[in-house]
Amino acid sequence: MRERLRLAVPNKGRLVDPTLALLHDTGLVFDEHDRSLVARVLNFDLDILFVRASDVVEFVADGVADLGITGRDLLAETGNSLPETRGLGYGRCRLAAAVPADTAHRAVEDLRGLRVATSHPNTAREFFRRRGIEVEVIALSGAVEVAPRLGLAEAIVDLVSTGSTLAMNGLRAIGDVMASEAVLVANPVAVRERAAEVLALDTMIGAVIAARDRKYVLMNAPASRLGELEALLPGLASPSVVPLAHEGMIAIHSVVGADVERGGSVALAATSARLGGGAADGRLLIEKDELAAAARRLQPSIRAALDVAIGNVRRFAEGQLPMTTRTVIMPGVEIERRWVPVGRVGAYVPGGAAAYPSSLVMSVVAAQVAGVGSIVVASPARADGTVSPVLLGAAGLLGVEVLVVAGGAQAIGALAFGLPEFGVEGADLVVGPGNAWVTAAKLELAGRVAIDLPAGPSEGMVVADPGSDPLCVAADLLTQAEHGPDSPALLVTTSASFADDVEAELDALLRAAPRRAILERSLGRHGRIILVADLDAALEVVNAYAPEHLSVDVADPDAFVAGVRNAGSVFVGPWAPESAGDYATGANHVLPTGGLARGCGALAVETFGKFLQVQRISREGLAALRPTIRDLATAEGLPAHAQAVEVRFQPPGQPEGTDR
Fold it and tell me: pTM of this prediction?
């Protein structure tokens, strides 16, 4: 047995410099001037073998090296199943299928029967085989992207980082084959027989990777809030806590995980693995062609229901489309108020415990009607690591470009900052409802990216009088409670006996409810009955609370609704349950919560754009405004503002104050 470990690393290519930086950061001392030779590490029992990138996997598989650093794409291409000890966080790229930009191909299914050139033939063949797409794979080395131009193939499969090389060669990506990054792989025999040495080197490298993805935190906080901080900050499970002189206050020292903005897809995957919401296979993206395939697999009844919902939401949204206007203030002064849709939108769709394709419809349809150019969706996987097929199918029906499989605050970060290594750009606007963590993340990022509204845990209020059906009222309260254990469901009524009748109906419905546990938790924590003297008092309660959903079932509902100022969406009369608006009427169900309905309204087409002011001023118009500008600028002590007007009326070479 050799006394020294051997580590194989690439001697050329994109992984060389970051690999050398990693090894030096690890503290290994060696001379790498001649990368074709073996470098002897002076302070660790290790020799570093500098070999061709394509040979690293073979060296490790054959036992020539005990460990190796290579790209996941190269590992897949060889077909070797070497154990990966860890991802290294650099060299992130994707193996993508691409076609000439002027062709009609939009998805990998469109390549059926065509020639595909690639330097990864085994990986490409396996990808198309799994998809049931028959193509002719042509193995090439070197500049694969020139193959279509030379007539060697109609498409390529090649590594893509930023996509600039594709664009320079007149190509565009139509689907991802796999994601790649640098990984540390090990020889199975070495792992078994030299476990201590392999573990020591892996630990050293892992410590550097972990340090790159951590931040040091020092904060002062009330001692009573320590539990909340531990739940909020990843990695804060074992903080150092020091009492401060101020009673009840503590100093907290800890290391927390870095954010998705810096860590990209690696940080997103790691956070999902720790907190949940990620796919079982670790996959982060579901591409447009897969979403379209999911749409084709939808049950006919579900497809029909989605088509109706999409059509109704679109019909309501089309009536909201703002108009560009022009106003003549005076002769020579004209202001245009031009409607401009947002360029890129990130839409969050809640998931995990339940899937909400209806929320997807609400966000995406309004954005499409507004004219948004690019829409990316994020939604967490279910507990078993899969994404709801109905949600995927709805995304396919809507033509969503890509779905990021992630939930919570980390998904909001991915939408806001993008995943550049996968060609996903950061959004200009992030929209969609979510839990408290999603809402907090949106508010945190509000200075970096636009947000729609802080739509947190759902809430509902029913105003009913003794003339209402207590069973229907109870059913409406359960509808609200079903959203989750943090969803308030409130009844406001003028009659104690009617309240008792509603409670009795609630008990009966709960006994037979499929989601009884969630309903009971929600009602137990946030269910309330509020008795008021009359409907005027009920109206005061409504406007003070500003509920997300307000159901009004009283003798004269229109008179009551006329006084409602603060609510997200109002359901009028006994035939208007909240669920109708959630799914089918066409009204948007992404609504302000937590009292924010006092100042903002539902998600709408207007959310997905802005008005650009365009001011056109002639010499005549400026002359008319000249005294006003001069006097106000002088009053505010801003003479340069006045000068910018006056110089326009001076002949060339004339002193200030002389008109043309």
Answer: 0.60
